[in-house]
Amino acid sequence: MALYAKATRGPQLLLVLSAIGLLAAGAPQSPNIVLLLMDDMGWGDLGVNGEPSRETPNLDRMAIEGMLFPNFYSANPLCSPSRAALLTGRLPIRNGFYTSNAHARNAYTPQEIMGGIPDSELLLPELLKKAGYTNKIVGKWHLGHRPQFHPLKHGFDEWFGSPNCHFGPYDNKVKPNIPVYRDWEMVGRFYEEFPINLKTGEANLTQIYLQEALEFIRTQHARQSPFFLYWAIDATHAPVYASRPFLGTSHRGRYGDAVREIDDSVGKILSLLQNLGISKNTFVFFTSDNGAALISAPKEGGSNGPFLCGKQTTFEGGMREPAIAWWPGHIAAGQVSRQLGSIMDLFTTSLSLAGLNPPSDRVIDGLNLLPTMLQGHVMDRPIFYYRGNTLMAVTLGQYKAHFWTWTNSWEEFRQGIDFCPGQNVSGVTTHSQEEHTKLPLIFHLGRDPGERFPFSFASDEYQDALSRITPVVQQHQMSLVPGQPQLNVCNQAVMNWAPPGCEKLGKCLTPPESVPEKCSWSH
């Protein structure tokens, strides 16, 4: 790959690993790594975060036995850019997972997209290979459909899943149903070989994904090989689904059924690690790619707890995620960290677990959270909220400054597409793009997690917060080198199957990605 940077074992990392006992005589040097990434699951969907039905006993137990991160963020309020950020440790504006077709536009990877993860980006599984890891992705890839973007070309050894979400069904005339792969082989399509009943919500996909995970863990344990499992399932993305034993079991409706099945599956994964005797040598982290899609609520969308709006927005509900770290014998039980965390930190933290330094030839935005998890350290760092190519907001400490506010357009809103249902905040949840770069709206997220009460511009606290935030933003923007945008151009000819005569190129203008029946792409 171009610009391939060496990831080397640094002496400081070996000292850290030695301090936590991983280099003791007879102990494996490299812990297994399991990242559990949900799709459109909200901060408020977990009982441990206050969901009143308390239907996530396994995730709640995971938090009790590990560390809860109540201030953990995605890198983008939409699926594809967030996943690219996790696997590269870099903001989407750096790794190219954005569009410049329009100001502050969200974008993702539909079947027609020309772009995908660039070869110049170094993905986590590529680097873990240097430390002898075997890597598997189960579920949703979402970093490009074309052959050069295949996950097995970017460090994964195995894949069972799909390049996209389970949108559909399509008519197979203008657009095919989305394929499902085992490694390089297409083994079927959603709604065909892998049925999803939109009327009842029944599908066995979560059970299939669970068995893929369990079998991979058993196989790698037998081989005594360190492994990286990236379990990226999509049952909580509309149209939500669950298998028959879970349908109708939740007080929260079909979405709750999907959450209950996910919770049960996480419990089975953790139990297997314990039964195999490898839980103390396996780091597990649970989170979501972006906030709950309130556009699909209440029947097919989750809860963002006390936070404002949801997916597609840069308010807290769009980017603050449920997050739990679990590593028995290393992460002390029952901890709650006040660290501002980011999905990009999973890249750097995983490399550190493997005894690897991050690449030195590029900016890495993710922090190593091991000092936080193992020693309780809290590091000062900003959280940048991007929407497309536009810096919308930044959080530093407890203060969040909005430089632009926007939910979605008046045109979409009048069609019934609402990213913030029941949450109108005058002058904040705007349907036109409102600029506040000279006088940003500033909130204290500790006292006002719902972003309802911006400070008075004349207040001392406003001026103090602004004086702290301004140099951080200036430094970020002055040093930023955007990557080549990957999500600008669509072409029907690049679909897994496309009818003849569909070679016309055009701009990708992102529709409300959470509502598949309303999705249409302009060419």
UniProtKB/TrEMBL annotation:
This is N-acetylgalactosamine-6-sulfatase. InterPro entries: Alkaline_phosphatase_core_sf (IPR017850), GALNS (IPR035626), Sulfatase (IPR050738), Sulfatase_CS (IPR024607), Sulfatase_N (IPR000917). Belongs to the sulfatase family. SUPFAM superfamilies: Alkaline phosphatase-like. Its cofactor is Ca(2+). The keyword 4Fe-4S does not apply. It is found in: Lysosome. CDD domains: GALNS. The keyword Membrane does not apply. Keywords: Calcium, Disulfide bond, Glycoprotein, Hydrolase, Lysosome, Metal-binding, Signal. Homodimer. Residues 31-355 form the Sulfatase N-terminal domain. It catalyses: Hydrolysis of the 6-sulfate groups of the N-acetyl-D-galactosamine 6-sulfate units of chondroitin sulfate and of the D-galactose 6-sulfate units of keratan sulfate. It comes from the Eukaryota.
